[in-house]
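ingest -> validate -> predict -> emit
validate: passed (alphabet ok, no gaps, 419 aa)
predict: started
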Amino acid sequence: MRRPLCALLLLALLAPAAPAQPKPESAPQQADAGTSVYQKVVRSTVWVHSDRGGGKFATGTGSLVDKGRRLVLTNYHVVGDVKAATVYFPEFEGREGKKTISERKYYTDRSGKLGISGEVLELDKQADLALIRIDRVPEGATELPLAPESPDPGQSVHSIGNPGKSGALWVYTPGKVRQVYTKKWKAKLDERNTVSFEAKVIETDSPTNPGDSGGPLVNDKGELIGVTQGGALDAQSISIFVDLSEVKRLINRRSVQLLRTGVASQQPKDPPKASREKPLESKDEGKFFGEAAWKRVAPTAEKLLKEKNTDFLVETYMTPPKGDADKIAAMKPAEREKFFKELVEARVKELKFQGVYVLVSKKPATLYVEISNPKDFPSGLATKLKSALLASFKESKFDEGLTKVIDMTLEAKGLGEKK
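emit:
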């Protein structure tokens, strides 16, 4: 028994070794679906600003749905009944230019350069939708395609928005469709007005926040299937989006289809011919400002007129140029505001003024800022200029206030000093 066993062992040792089996190659790592969708959709998504007057602003989100006609889709409740809006497209950084710059301050500090004026062109108040036609489409922005049909329950969805409570813009949120159905609901347009809506909607489990309104809801292919409307405050994990069918109904309106296609992102090589050859002459009869600060006014007016066809005028008085100073001083604040508003509007009409006009009176102490062509400036600039002046004047820092107004106006027209 030993000899056969030893022979078998010897044969096993002398036999050629079996070739080693190759290790299976690991499958290439696929990019996360959410990341891929985000990179497709973010270049179509905008931050929307709507100036409601009286220092009140509404902000939301929107999508570029027609690049040729320069149309941005958002909610009616984002723009309200205001005819003008300002939109911001995202900027990018990094080696391949894919990293979204998401800090709010980056955009507010560059509002003159990055803010794009637009006209609210079409409203669907019942479905809570609106179309803004913007003045230009920046290079690199892409049109968001519409999906062929509405989503089904259980389908994966993705949304991008600009939630006001977040420190970031262009925020991504994933979710699943719960159901698609017709819904009636009410919401506050502002402090005074409540509006009623009725539309086909998509209900999802993805959380939304104020500021996300108007943003895109897309499928895994990055196609638009809905528009963010809002979340249910009295329920968990329920958010509502206006369905694709309502969007198509708005875009297919004859008035929208008849819009002429413009050349996206093309800007005139030269500014239009100025309406006047020399800038209007400012005056400081109220003796508010020092020599050094005042010396900046004339060059600023000249630069704005020459490069941007925009007027800039500062006029200060000891007493208002029209009306009885004592009677004006005795007026209630609302009456005095109305008086100076009418005074400024008459002056603007008289001068055929197109730009930023600052009027200051010493007795009674009043200042008024008027922008005669607000569509050519970032939303709410007049209010910001007035606030800057008031803050400086209250501390008797008049030169500082004037300097702020000059710098903010130049920045708003893209003429600020590069830092």
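The longest helix spans residues 333-351.
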